[in-house]
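Marked as duplicate of an earlier ticket. Keeping the data here for the record.
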Amino acid sequence: MTEPDMSTVPGKRRIPPLLVGLALIAAGLAVLLAGAFATSRYPFAFDRGIIVGLRQWGGPVWLPKVATDITALGGGVVLTLFATVVVGFLLMQRLWLTALATAMACLTGGWAVDVIKGLVVRARPDLVPHLVDVSGYSFPSGHATSSAVIYLTLATLAGQVTPSRAARRYLLAVAVLLVGAIGCSRVYLGVHWPSDVLAGWSFGTLWAFGWWTATAGARQAIGGER
């Protein structure tokens, strides 16, 4: 008798290998950044080099407009609307646990970003003119962190109730590409140091990993949602 594919059972879904890999990279980056902050003054040399290099390069004439449009996908209004629509859809499907976990992950993630910014109080880059208007502190990048918190968490939690393996992989891959593009756009626009974005990616990835684990455990304990 062959063993059933437990990855198709929501309560016993295996953690996505891509998410595991991203979490390990995120943890490594977090350790490296913590060491850099403990031993060096910021901005770091690579921060300055990347920002100045990107501005000297400039890129195609259409790139600033594209970067501005992409960065808007990580803004508070867009993320709030997107998360609200997804939570509403989950409630309509009577996926109560997923809806609650999604809402709590997004809300508490946003609060955590604000707390960290207030503790670190890092100034934004002043090496090049900003290509978009910004305010507030720089570390971690709110767009990079919040987009990782919301898009990655939504993709991973939705994957727990998505039977199709291909669909789960697609959701997570799209979320990763979207989060990556948003973070890169912040550096290109000159409004964040690269280390701000790396920290945001790390935090958001570990946040999604933690919520996947907690929600999967809760789902298994209650025997599913339906």
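See parent ticket for discussion. The first helix runs from residue 17 to 39.
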